[in-house]
Write a structure and sequence with these properties.
about 0% helix, about 110 residues, 14 strands, disordered C terminus, mainly beta
Length: about 110
């Protein structure tokens, strides 16, 4: 399956790769070196600003910001998150509510 890009998403400068079956929703902003795995969701208003790599079936949440981060398969940062300079292993899930900042999460 091909990746699906909704109207109104922005693909900026840099090398951007989006895997098969992934969805990039409207108002998502991808710039810099970005590699999204297969069957992922980049939700509305997500801001990926370089050096972001995901495995398969990840969720990069609504109105969240990501930079210099690596996500293992099935990792999720649901919404209103800042994830920078981080490594999330497989199946990592942000469970807390409200704005959170995650740096160097190696759990």
């Amino acid at each position: 399956y091909a990746a699906l890009f909704e109207a109104g998403c922005y693909l900026g400068e840099g090398t951007i790769s989006v895997g098969a079956g992934s969805l990039v929703q409207s108002q998502a902003y991808l710039t810099g070196a970005v590699a999204i795995g297969a069957a992922c969701e980049v939700r509305q208003g997500a801001y990926l600003r370089g050096n972001v790599v995901t495995g398969a079936q990840c969720v990069l949440g609504r109105a969240s910001e990501f930079k210099n981060s690596l996500f293992g398969d099935r990792s999720k940062a649901g919404h209103f998150a800042y994830v920078g300079d981080s490594v999330w292993r497989r199946r990592r899930n942000r469970l807390q509510r409200g704005p959170q900042s995650w740096h160097h999460c190696f759990t």
